[in-house]
Amino acid sequence: MNDANPSDAVLQVRNMLMGFVLTRTLQVAAELGVADALAKGPKDRSTLAREVGADATTLHRLIRACASYGVFEELPDGRYANTPTSECLRSDVPLSLRPMARMYSDLPVWQAWAGMEASVRSGKPSFKEVHGVTIFEFFAAHPESARRFDDAMTASSRLLNQAVVEAYDWKQFGSIVDVAGGAGASLAAILKANPHMQGVLFDLPHVIERGRAFLAEQGLAARCRTEVGSFFDAIPPGADCYFMKHIIHDWDDDDCVRILQSCRKAMPDHARLLVCEKVVPPGNGPSYSKTMDLIMLVMTDGGRERTEQEYRELFARADLKLRRVLPMPADNSILEVTK
Fold first, then answer.
1. What is the pLDDT of residues 100-124, one digit of tens each?
2. Which residues form the catalytic set?
3. pLDDT tens-digit readout, 17-74
4. Are strands 332-338 and 272-278 parallel, antiparallel or unpaired?
5. 4-20 pLDDT per residue, tens
6. Choosing a second label site near 226 at 20 to 30 A (CA), which of 4, 111, 240, 336?
7. Rounded to whole angstroms, how far apart are CA atoms 28 and 105?
8. Model confidence, pTM
9. DSSP codes, 247-274
10. CA distance 78 to 65
11. Structural domains for the chain
């Protein structure tokens, strides 16, 4: 730059433009399993490189960049160590973010972002433009990518499960259906906190097998059955509560109405539909929901994050009523919906 004294705004934008470098650096560290390799203590460059399958010199450059943001640390003796921040990338910690890093670094996902400009111009999802199919069609045909996605969604659920349990009075329900509940992490948390409840995990065939195994591991097989199906067709009827977490934001308005109408048909008059989603706040302030909205633009076939009013209008189209919005941590809310 010719300007010898660039403004704060110029430097801010420059750093923002380079944000993808940090993102990719963290993803590669997660893919290599660097934090796992350092879980039992510091290691020297050669040992660490050998264990994670990397070149020692380039691994040093990667870790040095991470360390400048507090992720990993180079000790005075030259060994590398974890920090509280890099601990989040370990596989064996309760709130591990490694599955999310590996999902976003999966090559088909990463490639989709190259089409973002076309997506903004056309309004069409770039994932489908790049790969020729929607992301869920892609997952159905590519088990490894599907597994990465499921692992990431399970990790994401763990970040919110306790908040979900605490945000609502679940004890009023005797039965619950987790619609498109994936491996069942959220449902398991709800059932464990409410031992009187019976559950149903409902999802597509390629998902439900993992869910059945997970629920058995959690000791919930006797209290929770699994059912296979599509929420566009029919949802198990007769429960007191229907729960959907991070499902509605995957779809355009018309598809959402179809999903919600399926829920309505399944719901007895007394039942509640509880929708856990990010609600976009008004104004120009920062919000993770606004970033996630762009992820929905690129990755899904018409998905988006919505404002409270947009949700209210969406539910009304399915002849449902938004009764209240219960804020939760991490930009999430529970939207309570009735007939």
1. 999 999 999 999 999 999 989 988 8
2. 249
3. 999 999 999 999 999 999 999 999 999 999 999 999 999 999 999 999 999 999 999 9
4. antiparallel
5. 678 889 999 999 999 99
6. 336
7. 8
8. 0.86
9. -GGGB-HHHHHHHHHHHHHH--TT-EEE
10. 15
11. 8-90 (1.10.10.10), 157-338 (3.40.50.150)
